[in-house]
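Summary for the steering committee. The consortium agreed at its last meeting that each partner would contribute one worked example illustrating the joint modelling workflow. Our contribution is presented below. We chose a case with several input lines so that the handling of multiple components could be demonstrated. No manual editing was applied between input and output; the record is shown as generated.
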Amino acid sequence: MSGSRMIGVDVGGTFTDVFMLDEATGDARVTKVATTRPDQSGGFLAGIDELAGDAADLSVVVHGTTTGTNALLERKGARIGVITTQGLRDVLEMRRRDRPRTWGLRGDFVPVVPRELRLEVPERTLADGTVRQAVDLAAVRAAGRELLDAGCAAVAVLFANAYANPENETRAVEVLRAIWPNPHVSASSEILPEIREFERFSTTTLNAYLQPEVSGYIQRLEDGLTRDGFGGEFMIVQSNGGVMDVDMASRLPIRTTLSGPAAGVIAAGYIAQSAGFDDVITGDVGGTSFDVALISGGQSMLAAQTSLDFGMVVRSPMIEIATIGAGGGSIAWVDKGGLLNIGPESAGSNPGPVAYGRGNDRPTVTDANVVLGRIDARSPIGALERLDVDAAARAIEAHVGTPLGLGMLEAAEAILRVANARMAGAIRLVSIERGFNPRRFTFMPFGGGGALHAGAMLADVGLGRALVPRYPGVTSAMGCVIADMRQDFVQTVNALVDAVDEAALGALMQRHHDDGMAVLDASGTRFDRRVARFELDMAYIGQTHTVAVPLPVTVEDGIVTPPTRAGIAEAFDAAYRGTYGRLLDKGVRRVMNLRSAVIGERPKFDLKSLAPATAGSAEDARQATRQVYFDGQWHDTAIYARLDLPVGAVIDGPAILEQPDTTILIEPELKGTVDAFGNVIIEART
Amino acid sequence: MTEIDPITLAVLTGRMEQIADEMDATLFRSAFNPIIAEAHDASHGLYHAETGDTLVQGKSGLPIFVGVMAFAVKAVIEKAAERGELNDGDVWIFNDAHIGGTHLSDMRLVRPYFRDGKLFCYLASVGHWHDVGGNVPGNYNPAATEAFQEAFVLPPVRLVRAGEVQPDIIDIIMRNTRLPQSATGDLNGQMNALDLGVRRLDSVLDEYGAETVAAALDAMGRRAETLMRAELSALPDGRWEAGDFLDNDGITDTPLPIRVALEIKGDRMVLDFEGTAPVTQGPVNIALPTAVATAYVAIKHIFPSLPANAGVMRPIEVRIPEGSLLAAEFPKPTGGYTETILRMIDVIFAAAAQAAPERVVANAYGTINALSIAGRRSDGSPWVMFSFYGGGHGGSSDSDGLNHGNAPISTATIPPLEILEAAYPVMFRQWALRPDSAGAGRHRGGLGAIYEIEVLEENGAEAFLFGERGRFAPKGVAGGGDAALNVFSFEQADGWHHPPLASKMRGIRLDGGHSVRLETPGGGGYGPASERPPEAVARDVAAGYLSAEAATASYGAGWKEVAR
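What follows is the complete predicted structure of the assembly.
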């Protein structure tokens, strides 16, 4: 490690955000540069160069990337092949017999591997792990050659029941690795040794599909950094909110699918916890969507799998983020039945809202914010010179006001009310519907648009308060610097509790523990603490939905003490009661999977280093007064330069706080307080 | 009634839909049986206090229930009126399919919701229980001639009286199922879902006031009606007919015609099923509520953006001939209702496609293929593997049909083969797309599937199949071709056989090491095959979706010139 400066880089669709922290001095700086396309490494390196100058002086660079997600969504991964069990080559294409939408019966599905590149070989393992038919290695070799001849850049081996016994898969990849010209050969049992063939095959295949693209991208970044003299640790944020080193990211690119958003949630949790709030709901208002995540007691919720698009299932622990199609660019329209709708159609960031003057003439949520005076038309965020308020007003009048018999301003308020109601619905989904009391929670908007809607979320959902971090536009980049190193492991066990082989389970836990710790050891990073967590997926026999059962396991001197059968049963009862209220009389308990997480907690920096001055008065930060429309009338509204507000400043609504990357709206009944970290806390005035 | 402003309406519409969705999610999470937990064979909603009409229904439940639940609520309204008693805190329960629609496996719970001592609306929950008695475990009895052989029949009775749960009723129910533990879990889940609905409705009414919410619910219905009328007005006036057949009723091997005449006049539509076969001895009958609800499902597929409430059906008249198998009276068997309503949807699509081809997709595979394989393990313990199998969807004006989709009346997913192999002594020799199963067309149908299942248990097993489309293939629309037939085969010492009734059979003996094989239909094609680009045909041949012979037979030899 050569210096004390750490860099976090988050590459978004429009901007590449860079956050730099000097651990020694506590000095933190941020910058935004334009994202370069199609190769994002240009913007990445330019941003670091702008902020850090000499890369030789950097200790750590951590990256939140959307390269993998974009390649999946745009179907721009590599040409790859699949070798699978005889009779099962269509599993990937048949999915779980679902359909894209409930109503309409339209649409088809094109898998990322065409059928002619999915080859079958004789082999079969049964559910109990018995090898019924040993894999035909000559057939595997022939299939490998056929795929190479067809121009495949990666190959995935997908055998039935490989979670129960990987032997056939292991022998097959051995043969393939001998003939394959690059490292992109993987077996489903290596990527996800978990029961359910479609989910395992899909995850393994999508991983192979990304390997050439993502590993090439990472290599370009590494080369660029090395050229600039960088000699520190380079890491990538995973969807689970932890970081991994670049070798692992190249081998398991599927773990980066939610890299950027996960980093944002990690940062949000840390910022809120530092400010004294352990329960947080984050809200990221983007151009086309609103993304919500919940953090309870400082822990973000993890989802076991996600579907990136119809039929594109990724099973890998990831920060749970709920998304609805209502963002700043979402279009407001009135349907034939006279109902005002927001989205899902969006003008995105290009052409963007009507006020951008780039050819869209249908009103968006941002247009409503513009005509009501909430966004300053003269100095908008981004590259635009000014916004066309009149065009936005005309669009709102024509598409919403006239059909509903409302004036233009009423129509604009209506657009915001319906948009806010949809966002509130997304927050209810992750909070009230999961049994969390919203009053306990702090809403944390990040990204550019969220802070305009914070007050509405408090009113509509009954959240306790909102917290706008000091630099909401670079939250994800900051999260890169904060995130811990984390490895997740899974192995299907599939045994009744009374029949669990305690020694075998213990050995499995020990292996996960050791593998995870080895990864921590291999990294050049300092850790404050190392933690191993173990969890079983369990259910009563006959149930298909499992409950996550945390195991109270002690690890002493690196030796894992496995739980007893009685201990497992007890832990299940506690977890089940917590989830469903009551236990099932005479129910037979079953262990489905072991899930282990090994976490290296990285040193945290003191967010106070970001705080503004404590001296000075709020009046000095006051810029002007502007007319802003609330509740049916114009109000004289004070405009402040947010970054100039001192610690302890209290601003009564109505007020607007402006800064380069966001606009904060404090509604008439609310007040905003600048806390010791420079966050603005918005809550009711009384 | 209070007038409601359009903005509050937009906000409340979202809130009410979220309540119904959350009730669905509550049951899916806590249900014991996989038919609810995985296949989502359940539904929840809010219903009108006087008419029982659907006000709001959850988006994730089974599509067929969207229309049918109103009948369940109506049945309770009538029964309560008869008894002269309706209390806050009552919950009614029943499965009687002749008054509540669908089949006896579906247990319905209906709860009046009171506000300030006044009935405001009803909440209801329906879910498919794993077993409710009858002759065949799981209740798919292709040879039933009376409801009594399909399941025990529970008329609407009070499970809870003014907040007091009635243990006597629970005892009766649980003594009549082979799987009381599963049934208890599902019953608790449904009661939890209703409790949750009450709590959520309370908080919306606290926030907005009962009058405003009532006005919003009323406006939502009127809005749905307006939308439907606007859609119908955009279609040409006229009368179009379509007909198709069921293979047989599971008892007698006679084809059963299903016919519809679709008439559009201005902003109204009539669906007249005159000419449909009379009531049958075997269980392919359906009750009137099911028939009306099915028309709704078809309409919703043709106009997918319409909201899920009763307003949609106000401009539509559904005429079901008396004495037909679409209006069976108690105790005629209805266990195979899924097959009949799939055929109703097929004929509605075929008729509507003549009026507005771009709005309609070709027929999907048209059968759920309920297959159960049952036996005893060497230790004597019984096992039953029961599942539905998928097939292709129809081509549309937008694209080819989906390969291996779920039935239009359902959103159920199929369990992974690894889960089935881990739970039962079977092995899937094949789980694959079925070449040459799709209807040809400008946009071809999606492919059906091949599932070949070997019995590993040396004691062998017995198989039961309830399917359709063994004799009459799914049809194309707008000039598209028909898909392949459903083919079921079973292996015995002397070779492979097919059931005499093509698609239905009970008690098929299978020895250990022998297999059954399902080859399911694809979807029908959309538009003339001659309009399919030869490149697309060549691609299908290269992928093996089409054999070279079938390609040439359906599309001509032009594809060979562009093949690589």
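Chain A has 17 helices and 35 strands. The CA atoms of residues 152 and 560 of chain A lie 42 Å apart.
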